[in-house]
Amino acid sequence: MAVLSEIVRNVLVIVLIASFLELMLPEGTLRPFVRFAMGLFILIAVLNPVAGVLFENRTINTEWWDLKIDANQQEQVMERGEEINRQIWRSHQQALADKMAGQISAVAVLVPGVEDVETQVVLNESGEVESMHLLVKPQPLATADESGQVGVFGSNAADLSAEEQEAIRSKLSTIIKNLYGFEDTIVQIEFQGG
Predict the structure, then answer these.
(1) Which class is 97-191 in CATH?
(2) Which residues pair with 138 in a beta bridge?
(3) Could you tell me the pLDDT band of residue 60, with boundaries at 50, 70 and 90?
(4) What is the mean pLDDT of residues 139-159?
(5) Is the sign of the CA dihedral 81, 82, 86, 92 positive or negative?
(6) Angle subtended by helix axes 162-180 and 71-108, to nearest 10
(7) How many whole angstroms separate alpha carbon 46 and alpha carbon 51?
(8) Cα–Cα–Cα angle for 79, 84, 80, nearest 5°?
(9) Strand order in the sheet with 114-123
(10) Are strands 186-191 and 129-138 parallel, antiparallel or unpaired?
(11) Which of 45, 130, 151, 175 to pair with 73, CA 20 to 30 A apart?
């Protein structure tokens, strides 16, 4: 009785799939091939349980559509898949943080009085910028002999007054927050050498 119910169940599933495919396929040369393939599946669905009863001591692996996976094996596969997903996520997060740091450094160099900026970006689990740290190297003082102009900023952070550092810090913070929309992001700005 179990064999008969298995045959009926498998045939019904195949007939439903075949009917759906018949409705979805347009008239043409592909329809006979689909009917042929579904006919083969019906033959396998009928013969597989019968062969299982007749040859009980042999294993015939033709039940690929009715595959039953071992729970331990399934758990191992799921764990491995989650591990691969985490690795991919971490690599994408790192690449995103590096690109964002490069963009912010490039924009920060445009601020007057800034020669170079090293930026570190920290992303949270959802990929949003959580905080960033900027290490600013101020422009060296231009002497009157080299360019004919008087320099505005000192040669290093120790030469910059607190007002000059605060002006650069304010400009950098405003540009970064306005350009990238980081309203709730922590922006730490330090000056190299001071």
Answers:
(1) alpha beta
(2) 114
(3) low
(4) 55
(5) positive
(6) 130
(7) 9
(8) 25
(9) 114-123, 129-138, 186-191
(10) parallel
(11) 45
pLDDT band for position 119 (50/70/90)?
very high
Question: What does the angle CA 72 – CA 74 – CA 75 come to, to the nearest 5 degrees?
Answer: 65
Question: Is the four-CA dihedral 170, 173, 175, 178 of positive or negative sign?
Answer: negative
Helix (H) or strand (E) holding 134: strand 129-138
Rounded-to-integer distance, Cα 19 and Cα 17, Å: 5
**What are the start and end residues of each CATH 3.30.70 domain in the chain?**
97-191
How many CA atoms lie less than 13 Å away from 33 in the CB half-sphere? Answer: 6
Degrees, nearest 5: CA angle 57-62-66: 105
| Predicted TM-score (pTM) above 0.85 | no
* Integer Cα distance of 124 and 132 in angstroms: 12
Q: What tokens appear for 95 in the block? A: 């690449």
How open is the CA angle 113-116-117, to the nearest 5 degrees? 105
Q: Which helix (H) or strand (E) holds 131?
A: strand 129-138
Q: Which two tokens stand for residue 51?
A: 């062969």
Tokens of 145: 């002999």
**H-assigned helices in the chain:** 2-24, 30-54, 71-108, 144-147, 162-180
Q: Which amino acid is at 90?
A: R
Residue 59 corresponds to which amino acid?
T
